[in-house]
Every structure is written in structure tokens, then in C-alpha cells.
Amino acid sequence: MTNFFLQALAEVGTPSVLGLIVIGVLFGIIGGSIPGFTVTMAILVVFPFTFAMDPVSGVSLMVGVFVGGYSGGIVSGVMLGIPGTPSSITTVYDGYPMAQKGEPGRALGIGVASSFLGTIISVAVLVFFGPLIANFSMNFRPWEITALIVFALTLVAGLSSGALLKGLMAAALGLLITTVGYDRNSNLRFDFGLPAMGSGFEILPVMIGIFAFSQLLGNIEKLKDEKSETQKIDTNVTIPYGQIIKDMAGQKLNTLRSSLIGSLVGALPGTGGTVANFLSYDQAKKFSRRPEEFGTGIPSGIVASEASNSAVAGGAFVPTLALGIPGDLPMAIMMGVLILHGITPGPMMFEQNPVLVGAIYASLLIGAVVMVLCNLLLVRWFAKISLIPQQILVPVVLMLCAIGAYALNNNLFDIWVLFIFGIIGYLLWKAEVPLTPLILGVVLGDNLERQLFRALELNESWMTFLTRPLSALFLALAVASILFSLYQDRKIQRLKNAALRENI
């Protein structure tokens, strides 16, 4: 392990790759600083630039965006009281009040330090658990992998609070999209007589269309309701380093607990930074001797929020690399990068591509250091960036999305795919259909079909899925996740009905 890590470090340590990590971190922080842009949007915009790169360079750039994006949300959260990303919501609870007390530099410094420590701890979790899970899953055969993918999709759909049926339909639609074109036996499916559809849909334009383009259409809709008011913000921020060191010295247990929560939550498919954010903040409040002070501008709240959402980065890589199951949307895109470079994430990746795995470890560590330096040195500029109006942001990002889709194959058809799936994604968003199961279905669809075919080729009996212990366990967990989601949905509905009756 030491040898391949040193080799990976040598590759990542070249000036060109280090430069890409710095660029990725900067872009991620900028994306996270702009309310409504999100980490996923930043990753999707950068994604096309990785096509012409070697795998190490492409992955390093994406990891940089990933690390920077999760930390960037603190800027607008502290300075404006608006979370830059959904995973920074609880940062506002104490970060903004601290800034209102005249200590924005202290709030930003605590957030940056917490993000750094959260990332470092999550890398340790990845290094320790990733190979263990990969070694365990080496015994997986097609039946187990098929059942695992089914479980992941049902789990993600089930986490679509109050919309289980919509989540399952979205996952099924994602799987259906992957069936367009030729199958393993060279049979043409769902081409509708169009030669361009014979090869199926590329992952990139579909993902950009469903998530990024549809979200931008939603932002355009919101522009009509926005007032043309500009918020005044004091960008003359100074970081009190001595005070921050004292603050962090009293937050050792909180930092460790929040980082572990973020790492573990990040490893669960379909959860991500937002869930980790609220969970760690709640736990910090419960373990605090002065829970009544939370929300008034105290270091504990900022530490809990930022350590957990940054720790999601390392945790989310565990199922992605070890099992080939992306934990959230950014990881689904990261998996797309690897697939486009001919690398299939899964148990064999640690054996077949150890240098690339080591490069991911190294990029996360270097990205964390770069993130700290960039945030501390350029904080006043990031504060100004957070004020970019949507009228400027939306058309620029739309253009970048279209260029990225075209750059994949220099094919105009991919731009049409982007626009069509963008409209579909927008309509689904309007109908409150969760998009995460849809995108994960698109990413996992090919692998699910491949493994299912292999399983049936080896044994035609469907009962084999139930007679093999692990595959039966995963299928049982899939059923359990659906039943639990139904129970939760009914519970939520009963509470809503009770609240309505009280108001009448």
C-alpha cells in the first residue's frame, strides 16, 4: 500500500496536477459561495474539461472542486445569512449571528478550520474502510451485485421524504433511459427510427440536462419574483488567528464527532451533506452543556455544521470506489468521470488501479490544505463573488453546459439531448419528483443490466437470488427500506392532518 501511495503522491505532486487541484478548489469555493449554484452544479460545469486529461489529472481536478464546493457555502452563509449550498444550512444558524455581532472573520475562520479537519478525518475513514469493504466485496458474484444495486436504488428512492412512489418511478425512468440503443446481444432497442439513438444516450449530457439545466430553468423562473435589490456587504474581513486557535482547542470532541457523523452519513447512498449537516448539529446541541446558546452565534454550531459537511467528501468515496455505488449526486458524476476514462469503480479497482485510488487520497489531502489557504487569503473576494446576480450567472452557466455537452463527441445531437432532458428534468422538478434517484438510475443502469444478464446466464433460475445469503439479504433490505419509507410517509401525513385540524 505504501508503494502505490508514494507513486500516486509523485503523480499528484507534479506542477500540472497541483495546478489543477488549486483551480478545482478555487472554482468549488466560488460555486459554493454563490447561493443557488451548489456543489453539484460546479462539478457538472467542470466535468467536460476532464475529457482530454489523463485519469489522475481529471480525478484530481474533480476532487479539488468537490473539496472546495463543500467549504464554499460558509461565505454566503456567514456574510449574507444565505446558505451557498444545501449542506451549509445549519452554518447560518450560528455563523450569521456571529457576523452580526461584528465577528465575521472569526466565524469564517472557525468554519474553514472545521472544514479542513473534517476533510482530514474523512480521508482517514476512507483509507481504513475503503480497502476493507473492497476486500469483503471481492466475493460478490453477479447475484450479489445486482441485489446491491437494487437496494441502493430503493434506499435512495425511500429517502425522498413523502414521495416514495415518485422516487421509485424516477429510479425506474433512470434505468429505462439506459436501455436505449444496442443491448449485449446487439439487439436495437427504443431508437424510434433515429440513427443517432442507436448508440444510446451519453451519461454527461443526460446528467447535465436533468440536474443542471433543469435547475437553471427553475432559477430563470424565480428571477421574475426577485427584486433588483443589492445587499451591502462589508468585505474588509480580518481573520483573528489566535482567537480561532483558542476556539478550536475547545472543540476537539465536537470536531471528531461531527466529522465521523459526516463520514458515515456520506457513505450511505442518497444522503449526503444536508442530512449530515442537520444530524451533527442536532447531536452537538444534545451533548452541549449550554444548548440554549445554539443559534446565537457560538463556535460549537459552526464547527458541527462545517466539519460534518466537509467530512462527507471522504465518506462518499467509500461506496463509490469499493462497491461502484455512488453515495450522492457529486459522487455519481465522479463515477461518470472514471467510466469515461475506461475505469470501472468497484472491488477490483483497488487491485487494478491502486495508483488512481492513491491519487484520490492524495488529492483530498492536498485539496484540504489548498482550501484552507485559499479561504483565508481570498475571503474578501469570495464575499464579493457571493453577490453575483442570477441574471448574469444563469446565461453563463447555460452556455458552459451546452459547450460541455458538445465537447464530449463534437456532436450536435448531444446538445439536443441536454435540452430535451433539461425540459424533462424541469417538468419533473415542477411535479416535485426527486431527481437524485433518476440520475443514480442512469449511472447504475448499465451495470445493473450487465450483472443481471451474467447472473441469468450462469443460472436461469430467479430463485438463485433468494438462495444465496448475501443477495437475499440485500433484497430483504430493499423491501425493508420501502416498507419503512411507507411507514414514515404515513406518519408524516398523520402529523400534517393533525396540524390542519388544530388550525381549523
Structure in words:
The protein is an all-alpha fold. The chain has one domain. The chain contains 21 helices and 2 strands. The chain has a two-stranded antiparallel ribbon with strand order 1-2. A hairpin with a 5-residue loop joins β1 and β2. α9 runs antiparallel to α17 and α11 packs parallel to α13. The mean pLDDT is 80.
Give the helix/strand layout.
Elements: H1 2-12, H2 15-33, H3 39-46, H4 55-79, H5 89-100, H6 104-137, H7 142-158, H8 164-177, E1 181-182, E2 188-189, H9 203-223, H10 241-249, H11 252-266, H12 273-287, H13 299-323, H14 329-340, H15 349-352, H16 354-385, H17 390-409, H18 412-430, H19 436-458, H20 464-467, H21 469-503
Antiparallel strand pairs: 1-2
Give short descriptive properties of this protein.
504 residues; 74% helix; 21 helices; 2 strands; mainly alpha; globular
- The number of domains: 1
Q: How many angstroms separate the termini?
A: 65 Å
Radius of gyration: 23 Å
Count of individual beta strands: 2
Sheet with most strands:
2 strands, antiparallel
Helix content: over 70%
Number of helices: 21
What would you call the structural class? Answer: mainly alpha
Mean pLDDT: 80
Beta-strand residue percentage: under 5%
Oligomer: single chain
What spatial form do the alpha-carbon principal axes imply? globular
Strand order of the largest sheet: 1-2
Uncertain segments: none
The H-and-E topology, N to C, reads as HHHHHHHHEEHHHHHHHHHHHHH
How would you summarize what this structure contains?
The chain is an all-alpha fold and 504 residues long. The chain has helices at 2-12, 15-33, 39-46, 55-79, 89-100, 104-137, 142-158, 164-177, 203-223, 241-249, 252-266, 273-287, 299-323, 329-340, 349-352, 354-385, 390-409, 412-430, 436-458, 464-467, 469-503, and strands at 181-182, 188-189. Strands 1-2 form a two-stranded antiparallel ribbon.
